[in-house]
């Protein structure tokens, strides 16, 4: 064999593909974690020759591997791999021949030149490019949510003037609605602070349709491989007597001392009915009209992290704070998380009264500490400083309740001219001082709010109801266009009071643990318990049904799909885990238990203190049908990958028990189930990521911008693609390595979701981020990903775990020692 042939044979191997893929992953990890800004990441990684060389080597290696292993003999597998080459080709065309710029227009201004950014690593390096036609901004319009400064949409009404082709037409550009003309695509990017000018992103991308064609081939390849008779996926499904295609298609479619002067026990017993009437008053909050019930729940959750305290529900607590401010300021209601702050306050429990935070002269007790915390950069803040900032926020929320600043319930006759702004009692006082409201009208509003408080004090349900109806009539007269329907208000209150999602934590976790325990008992005793299995499955279905119904209810109440923010998407991932286990893996108690347990864990994460469960308005970019498709598909993939990870851990436990019990058959079967979970998860993740690319192209003009969320989705896809292919690499074949990597790979998913949203917290996907203090958990994620990379490299080059990883041979399993059935071109 010639030297050239040996070198080419060595290069066009799966081992080299693994090494190149890991280099590619590490480069992206370095770009997202090693720099403070995207500009630096572009300058030192994405625009460099060495990064470009890795992508070219990956493409060449893939072509060689496809030829060497004769993938062309299996059409769906061939399409899957060809799609990657087509996508890389489209990306290359975009990189070398495409460009993007900006067009800044003031109202009435006409331009025919865009400013193109030569390098994203050097934003100041720009040059002009002539369009060949003119664009005039006729009018820029900013629309905001009622009574707020939060943008609902921003729109550019333009006229295109093409003298060369004698064309002139008007067009309406807004987020997710672009102008395509003359080889350019115009996107609504930003606007001037005075709202009289628009900034459009202009994109010229000849590689777009090539890339899109690659996306289509990828989706066809994944779906075809699932039904192809000779594919490993189909063979595994057949052996387990399960078929999940139709379900996949369906998923794609779719402690203190009480004050003696006031009897809190009496108030708790007598105020429930009157507080119920108080809860039905409509209030304007964050640009949204909602029942007081929702605001009360948000307030009490912010102050206490609970919905009930001292025998009172959240409506009774807030109503009491309004009617009896002096008494409730003595009641320990504000949560204090840090022991050092509790010691400073002189409290024994975790809750402190409002009065405890103020000195005898009325000054705030922790002003100095909070000022220092604000001055300290976020990354350098200590845990104590973060807790001081949270205390500051809770005390301020309590202050807005006691002063009635937070209750914006009164519209004015000129409400429409003021973007339907509603007023609180404090706002009305300020309006009178500034001569914006006459004293007679103000006095009328004061009396209405006073009647609400009187109704609570006297437990007068009739007075409370009559006052609420008077306020509603005012709201209807002056702001009827923006009021939600009575039905929606009723269901929102029902949604708040049912508190279904927190209850599902215990349901899923308990069922999951019971199923796992039962699965181990059945394996050890070699005996099944059909009645217990059926009971667990039926209870699981009931939990999933309730979960689904509550998601649909939140959808109706919020007016948008319930996966638009951190809380909603975590809840949806939990739904995906439960769905995957009950629909696909219910015949295996270990698999079922893993899925339900993972669902319970995600539900628990969704209800941690740092995750905000409030129903909020959507930012303009999310107002698209792509939200339904992209987010639903990609978060569903997390459910399947989570099930696969948990099953990998359970299979490792079976390996530990292997010497004592004959578990080879069970390990082999569970390994097959893991493969199915990971394959479906990878398919959904890949399709969902590239659908996100199409959405990004329709929203801000580029389908791939190396945004941290995009980048980590790609890293995760590569990690799982490598796991799927380990069965083809001799040193990596075997159930032990497959199960270990299946478990460790989920750390990449955790980084993609939690790490990007809460730790990196930058990029175009910032609308999905939340707050997460301390970041201790990021070290766990880093350790898990590091372990994954170490296991792959050590196994590939040193074979240290090769003996433990020896593939299990079963006499009655015809496929026990086969290579990947799709790659029989070479032994």
From TrEMBL:
Q: How does it sit in the membrane?
A: Multi-pass membrane protein
Which residue ranges does UniProt annotate as crossing the membrane?
Answer: 12-33, 53-69, 76-97, 209-228, 240-259, 505-524, 536-557, 569-585, 590-608, 628-653, 673-696, 711-729, 736-756, 776-801
Q: Which residues form the Cytochrome c assembly protein domain?
A: 563-760
Single GO MF descriptor = heme binding
Entry keyword set: Cytochrome c-type biogenesis, Membrane, Transmembrane, Transmembrane helix
Q: Where in the cell is it found?
A: Membrane
What GO cellular-component annotations does this UniProt entry give? plasma membrane
What positions does the domain ResB-like occupy? 74-193
Grouped into one coarse class, the protein's main location is membrane
Q: Which residues form a coiled coil?
A: none
One record GO biological process: cytochrome complex assembly
What InterPro entries would the database entry show?
Cyt_c_assembly, Cyt_c_biogenesis_CcsA/CcmC, ResB-like_domain
Q: What is the superkingdom listed in this entry's lineage?
A: Bacteria
Name the record gives this protein: Cytochrome C biosynthesis protein
The record lists the organism as: Caminibacter pacificus
